[in-house]
Amino acid sequence: MLPPSVLQRQRGERICPARNQNGQLTLKEALFVRAICCCPEDPTFDNMCAAMRKAGYNGKHVGVAAYELMKKPKIANAIEKYRQNIMQEFDITPKKVLQEIAATAFSDFGDFYNNDGTLKNLKRLSKAARVALHGVDIQYGLNSDGIPAVTQKIKLHDKLKGLELLGKYHKLFTDNVNITNLDSDITQDERAAQTRSRLLAELSNDKDDGGE
After folding, report:
1. In 10 A of CB 87, how many CB atoms?
2. What are 105-140's pLDDT values in tens digits?
3. At what angle are helices 188-211 and 45-54 packed, to 10 degrees?
4. How far apart are CA 82 and CA 16, in angstroms?
5. Which of helix, strand or coil describes residue 40?
6. I want to staple 163 with a disulfide (CB 3.0 to 4.6 A). Which of 50, 85, 105, 195 is the partner?
């Protein structure tokens, strides 16, 4: 049976491919990197704390520890490497991402209906139209003559969000709204200020606890 140190290193390498042969990242660091990379948005105070706890870090001030960890070059490099591996594994390219966003942004309800107003067969829709389609709502009822009828309503993905993402990518707007969180009006500077404030609050509480 392999010694615990070897098993731990092998487990860390499976968890985070960015670990080098010299064990540059500890197991907890590798778990932290994976947790951060699995988050669908840029690191914030809350998801950094959550990532720390998932990695096995304990204590009241995990936010401060996470902030210090994120400043380490080896952590930043590991996060970048992990994300690159994910992109390669799933064949995700910037072009594909932009194509999917563009399909949503420029979707048209007219592409889904025949000339007589009936809904087209989904198999005959273009790829862009299928990408833009969020779902089909099927309702059963009676028409004005009392005859059973089926009503089909389509729902598309948010066009405005797609347009805003494309506008941000092409720098069409001058505001500083965070592209990864278009549901909020908070800017990146404001988000950073909030994170600093919360970290300072943690440190302040730590000093107060030590003075008792």
Report:
1. 13
2. 999 999 999 998 888 998 999 999 999 999 999 889
3. 60
4. 7
5. coil
6. 105
